[in-house]
Amino acid sequence: MSRKVMGVVMNGVTGRMGYRQHLVRSILAIREQGGLPLGDGTVLWPEPILVGRSAVKLKELADRHGLTHWTTSLDEALAHPLAEVYFDAQVTPAREAALRTAIAAGKHIYTEKPTAESLAGALELARLARAAGVCNGAVQDKLFLPGLLKLKRLVDGGFFGRILSVRGEFGYWVFEGDWQSAQRPSWNYRAEDGGGMILDMFPHWRYVLDGIIAPVRSVYAHTATHIPARVDESGRSYQATADDAAYGVFELAGGITAQINSSWAVRVDRDELVEFQVDGTEGSAVAGLRNCRIQHRASTPKPVWNPDLPAGESFRSQWQQVPDNDEFDNGFKVQWELFLRHVATGSAYHWDLLEGAKGVQLAELGLQSAREGRRLDVPELTL
Ligand SMILES: NC(=O)c1ccc[n+]([C@@H]2O[C@H](COP(=O)([O-])OP(=O)(O)OC[C@H]3O[C@@H](n4cnc5c(N)ncnc54)[C@H](O)[C@@H]3O)[C@@H](O)[C@H]2O)c1
């Protein structure tokens, strides 16, 4: 088999997402499996070209994984003779300028969400990429998780009948950083640094709802900063200026109501860190990251409200697990493979920068809704 080497400039690989999910679990995992077969006897071999701010960290990381290409200059990375793709997992505010530079250099673009901090910026990136004729994609990893793939399978198979509603619960306790260190970066809690629950999670909820249930038509959001002061990575206390919880109500096409709570100030009483319950006329499902359980109309119990008596049945035990019936790979890696194949062969790829802009649109409208205390329509986006 012949090998096609494709240089992938990777920015933000010293961060949580850039390192673990994108470099190790995706690009290096593709190399460990022998590359990505393209179906024509060729194997695509992604060659990371690491770029970042700290030479010390980049060298250490490159040495740890036997990688040879790294630099602290974005221009130098983009000018590397192997470079074909630019990938961005930097902090959100650094993204737009870097993506513009990479598009101007003629590179194919793959990026973490949110693709920009404003809808205007996100749309402009999509337009620039289209005008430059480069392939482009935004990370929409939740669509490739086993639990949500099973949920999509149920929707596609008509399990629900008419879908009525979706209720999502996302979140966990993020420590304040004083007596136990915080498990998320401090910039997440500062609006001026691109933090905030809505900007972080509404892009995910947009593609999950659009892609699995039905297109989002309106949004109402209530936000809170439940923990007003936190302690950062270097032990300094700071004011949390961003929302750390968002309570959203979304109207979807077809009259479906979706309601999603997102919070970093909640203690988990769920099977998974995110769960979506979908209720339909024929059946219901609860999908998490890995698992999905169902209750069909025919096996639905008939509880009777009587607060004088203890609950007479175990409701959680009345659900049935959806079998895997498949092998599920890491969701980030699956989407990387689809994107790299798209670049190499021109195969179809749906999750582009326009789709990414829809996530930014929902975040922007969600923040506006919270500020103004009213429901806002989500207009169709075109380039
Ligand atoms: N798809 C997902 O599920 C998911 C999950 C978490 C985060 N994200 C996104 O990934 C991006 C990175 O998030 P993270 O949690 O990995 O953050 P992080 O703080 O762990 O990493 C940020 C990276 O950006 C770099 N960086 C560049 N300019 C910087 C600057 N001015 N200040 C600080 N760091 C700078 C850092 O060196 C680091 O490599 C964000 O845009 C976030 O929205 C996506």
Automatic annotation (TrEMBL):
Transmembrane segments: none annotated. This is Putative dehydrogenase. InterPro entries: Gfo/Idh/MocA-like_OxRdtase_N (IPR000683), GFO_IDH_MocA-like_dom (IPR055170), NAD(P)-bd_dom_sf (IPR036291). PANTHER family: NAD(P)-BINDING ROSSMANN-FOLD SUPERFAMILY PROTEIN-RELATED, OXIDOREDUCTASE. Signal peptide: none annotated. It holds the Pfam family GFO_IDH_MocA_C3. It comes from Kitasatospora gansuensis. Residues 149-285 form the GFO/IDH/MocA-like oxidoreductase domain. Residues 52-135 form the Gfo/Idh/MocA-like oxidoreductase N-terminal domain. GO terms for molecular function: nucleotide binding.
